[in-house]
Amino acid sequence: KIPDEQWAQVIEKDGGPITYKKIPVPKPRPDEVLVKIKYSGVCHTDLHALMGDWPLERKTPVVGGHEGAGEVVAKGEMVTKVEVGDYAGIKWLNSSCMSCTFCMQADESICPHAQLSGYTVDGTFQEYAVANAAHAARIPKGTDLAAIAPILCAGLTVYKGLKESGARPGQTVAIVGAGGGLGSLAIQYAKAMGLHVLAIDGGAEKGEFCKELGAMAYIDFTTAKDLVAEVKAAAGDEGLGPHAVLLLAPREKPFQQATGYVRSRGTVVCIGMPAGAMVSMPVFDTVTRMITVKGSYVGNRQDTQEAIDFFVRGLIKAPYKIVGLSEVQNVFDMMKESKIVGRYVVDMTK
Ligand code: 8ID
Ligand code: ZN
Ligand code: ZN
């Protein structure tokens, strides 16, 4: 009952448009599962892949997508812990070597041999996709597959980023790009982790949205006269600033502002990846205010299961919109103009 051909969205040339076409259904290798994808989220990383704007080599042509949720329909002979019929998720980390020093410490996202869904290997914008069984996310039976799809990259990434920030319950985190895909989930995870949220994004609609999701304050970067001062003031505690900052926006400017408003001893976590951008900060302040600046890149298998567990417990409710697989380019067009509020998820049957 597994067909030979299927519909897919394929990146064929830098800059796009992405091509909706029929391609062969892949076969799982001995250590892989074949997942019938029901829904896939559309991440801004998919747009970077389409534009070819990162200094990281991409396969061409490549099927895009890396937030795929579905059901296992076949598996390789070495796969023992996953059964046909199980729900599974395919994420950015499609596989890693499992034997380098990073993999041995479960730091598989920095494995030099990692394979990336929708980038170095075919991803989840297709009806059937393969992933290494150990890296495929385990999703409990009965879970809403459309709602959980964005957890597989956006949710996992912001959950890991919040852990990396070291912010503790009761403290305040500023989320930059709070109205987007990662941002909307970051508000929800931060709230579930007992943090106060200061949301930063552009426009009134995203402001309403962030407050509905649980942000205590919203700062509009498009109208703020002195963004740094406004963020410090909104964080309370006599203007000391937020304890942590999650930089999620795919623009350079916030990466040059964050050390200005983060609290002394605070941590700035870089997650968004604007093309060609640099982080910059005054050495004097960084030293005398003891500021930490670090990067955070998706998460490992354990982080994945923890992020899913928050969702399954009903703690994470970020709105998303569903469109057909054939409409991925329309989603990219809206994303380029920062018009998306929350996340888009594509339905593989349409
Ligand atoms: O593991 C990782 N580090 C990881 C994982 C997943 C995604 C990194 N990413 C990267 C993506 O590649 C992308 O560069 O995170 C970035 C954001 O992804 P996204 O959340 O999927 O993008 P989005 O839905 O388009 O949201 C971006 C938001 O940023 C706002 C936009 O208005 C939008 O709501 N924004 C912009 I553009 N400029 C801003 C600014 N100056 C800003 N918000 C605040 N200040
Ligand atoms: Zn992603
Ligand atoms: Zn490795």
TrEMBL record:
Cofactor: Zn(2+)
Gene3D superfamilies: Medium-chain alcohol dehydrogenases, catalytic domain, NAD(P)-binding Rossmann-like Domain
UniProt KW keywords: Metal-binding, NAD, Oxidoreductase, Zinc
Keyword S-adenosyl-L-methionine: no
PANTHER family: ALCOHOL DEHYDROGENASE 1-RELATED (PTHR42940:SF3)
Domain Enoyl reductase (ER): 15-346
Family: Belongs to the zinc-containing alcohol dehydrogenase family.
GO CC terms in record: cytoplasm
UniProt-recorded name of the protein: alcohol dehydrogenase
Keyword NAD set for record: yes
Pfam families xref list: ADH_N, ADH_zinc_N
SUPFAM superfamilies assigned: GroES-like, NAD(P)-binding Rossmann-fold domains
Enzyme nomenclature, EC number: 1.1.1.1
Cross-referenced CDD domains: CAD3 (cd08297)
GO molecular-function terms, A-Z: alcohol dehydrogenase (NAD+) activity; zinc ion binding
